[in-house]
Design brief:
The chain contains five helices and no strands. It is an all-alpha fold.
């Protein structure tokens, strides 16, 4: 009861296309005929909407970093990096160790307002 199909199967696109065209050209005689035309129209409407969304992404892709990294276009660079390796990163990947003793430099600047061994202590020599 209510489980039977009356129209063409979903895989028969030619028959469904004919019913879709009839949806716009002729009036249905019964509710069942109208319902079948709606079911046939739904197949092509879904395909059209999905195709339109994909075309919109191709013409005007989002500018987010997530899209740039995981978009379908990224597949080519992923394959290239898999075979040929990657370029060195632009940003640091680990903490950089410096030879400067920052607490000592701060102590020298606070107490003497000069760094030890950085030149003359006399301000008069610079005025010549």
């Amino acid at each position: 009861l209510g489980e039977t199909t009356t129209g063409p199967p979903v895989s028969d696109l030619a028959a469904n296309w004919k019913l879709t065209v009839e949806f716009f050209t002729t009036s249905p005689l019964s509710y069942r005929e109208f319902k079948q035309r709606c079911i046939s129209l739904r197949i092509f409407a879904f395909t059209g909407v999905c195709s339109g969304c994909v075309l919109s992404f191709i013409i005007s892709p989002p500018k987010s970093s997530y899209w740039m990294t995981w978009s379908p276009g990224y597949i080519f660079s992923w394959v290239r990096n898999s075979f040929f390796g990657t370029k060195p990163p632009i940003f640091l990947t680990e903490k950089v160790e410096r030879a400067t003793d920052v607490p000592d430099v701060v102590k020298q600047l606070v107490t003497t307002r000069r760094l030890a061994g950085s030149g003359s202590d006399s301000e008069e020599e610079d005025d010549h």
